[in-house]
């Protein structure tokens, strides 16, 4: 790692407070550009034509959304170098983002989520844990990274809330349903206390069979296996449960601002994608509430 990239990583982590996953992705994107440029050209001094050639190269095998993310990462990096007075101009400044269509997220029905949970073997240690994980993912609308980092000290069951550490280390309190609390408490009282827990995981809620912290990949695998067993012809991930949470709230009358707060979205525009999932609901709202609807 070059000195400028090391300084940039330090800046992102300590001064900008970006999430660890975001930091890893940003550095990986810089690594892609450096690999393309070769050892004879330092990434800090790349020119606009170098960046354009790189984007043209990756366009053959990366989606427009991924290209846009890489350009965003490069833009942040070169703006940092300008602040450090390492360079005078940002070579990404006049490069347009690739056009991309906004894909609607995959959503499960309530029956499909019930089917997934019904296939969990609840007479096993892992089954009890997995049942609680899926209940928390769907009933609280959490990101998978938020679930794996949930702590015992984040549970405020007397008040009916959990404390969640979201993107950029931003905290929010999310209501938790009675059903989810019941399953988490069952896991705690019947399964977790039997594990030989590693010291660094003593406050972590969901653990693997060796008493260590679960990984995001493990939860992806759990859902993929359940989806395969259920015969669902959908590309399902933990984020699918988060999308389903938001969609079902909207369908049942929740307002967009409340959903934004529950999901921890910084901007309401990120939450607005769920409006496209329920056009029939919006049509009904106009017919029901607009003063001229019955003219």
From TrEMBL:
Q: Which residues form the active site?
A: 143, 167, 239, 242, 265, 274
Signal peptide range in chain numbering: none
Q: What keywords would UniProt list here?
A: Cell cycle, Cell division, Chromosome partition, Cytoplasm, DNA integration, DNA recombination, DNA-binding
Q: Which residues form the Core-binding (CB) domain?
A: 1-82
Q: Where in the cell is it found?
A: Cytoplasm
Which residues are in the Tyr recombinase domain?
103-287
Q: What is its main location?
A: cytoplasm
Q: Which Pfam families match?
A: Phage_int_SAM_1, Phage_integrase
Q: What does this protein do?
A: Site-specific tyrosine recombinase, which acts by catalyzing the cutting and rejoining of the recombining DNA molecules. The XerC-XerD complex is essential to convert dimers of the bacterial chromosome into monomers to permit their segregation at cell division. It also contributes to the segregational stability of plasmids.
What protein family does this chain belong to? Belongs to the 'phage' integrase family. XerC subfamily. Belongs to the 'phage' integrase family. XerD subfamily.
**Subunit-level organization:** Forms a cyclic heterotetrameric complex composed of two molecules of XerC and two molecules of XerD.
Among HAMAP family, the record links this protein to: Recomb_XerC_XerD (MF_01808)
Supply the name of the protein.
Tyrosine recombinase XerC
**Organism classification:** Bacteria, Pseudomonadati, Bacteroidota, Flavobacteriia, Flavobacteriales
